[in-house]
Amino acid sequence: MRVKICGITTEDAAIAASRSGADMIGFVFAESSRRISPEKAKEIVQLLSDNVKITGVFVNEKAEVIRDIKEMVSLDYVQLHGDESPEFCKSLGVPVIKALAIREKSVIEKMSQYNCDYFLLDSPGVQYRGGSGKTFDWHLLQDRDIPNEKIILAGGLNEINVHDAIRTVRPAMVDVSSGVETNGKKDVKKIAAFIKAVKGREKDVRVHIT
């Protein structure tokens, strides 16, 4: 099971995620309490192993801005949390993760309209797009014709509930942000604990902050 740590804003958090075994990290370039500048994200990416995939989160952004930031930061994926159409996603010519806020079963039907690399299924946002830090009803995804190999499950996950989430949804990847934070900041111990819980490691995960 792969793990994505989103909302990275510091070198320490990025390095902790990488060393603990994260497969992907996300930077938020949209309006958010976790927003980061492309320049700072670029600096952080240069510290990381090539094994960690890099995602940039955007909300209803212009295509040229998305492409420029992708090149500057060396993003592997762009994650779209707005009202982007299937045509817009295709026109970017880059690997896309399309986020959908799961309020009801009808939202799931939208997936068939998109030709994306992944779908990130999240709880509806409150102040900002991109989730509320709360879970949604995972059972809405059961008995549905969804491409599990393309599903990234997000929304209120933490080291306690992530096993139930995986068993219920069977996604390709799980995504966490607020679930590995303390007082709104990424907590390196929680990052390590979450990744260890997902990957079922028996050995200790040692995180050295430089």
Automatic annotation (TrEMBL):
Q: Where is the N-(5'phosphoribosyl) anthranilate isomerase (PRAI) domain?
A: 3-196
Q: Which reaction does it catalyse?
A: N-(5-phospho-beta-D-ribosyl)anthranilate = 1-(2-carboxyphenylamino)-1-deoxy-D-ribulose 5-phosphate
- Return the EC number: 5.3.1.24
Q: Which domain of life is it from?
A: Bacteria
Fetch the SUPFAM superfamilies from UniProt. Ribulose-phoshate binding barrel
Q: Does the keyword Metal-binding apply?
A: no
Q: Name one Pfam family in it.
A: PRAI
Pathway(s) this gene product operates in, as recorded in its UniProt entry: Amino-acid biosynthesis; L-tryptophan biosynthesis; L-tryptophan from chorismate: step 3/5
The record's section on CDD domains has: PRAI
Gene Ontology molecular function: any one: phosphoribosylanthranilate isomerase activity
Query: What InterPro entries does the entry give?
Result: Aldolase_TIM, PRAI_dom, RibuloseP-bd_barrel, TrpF_fam
- Tell me the enzyme class: isomerase
Alphabetically list the UniProt keywords.
Answer: Amino-acid biosynthesis, Aromatic amino acid biosynthesis, Isomerase, Tryptophan biosynthesis
Tell me the protein family, please: Belongs to the TrpF family.
How is this protein named in the record?
N-(5'-phosphoribosyl)anthranilate isomerase
Q: Which organism is it from?
A: Siminovitchia thermophila
Organism ancestry: Bacteria, Bacillati, Bacillota, Bacilli, Bacillales
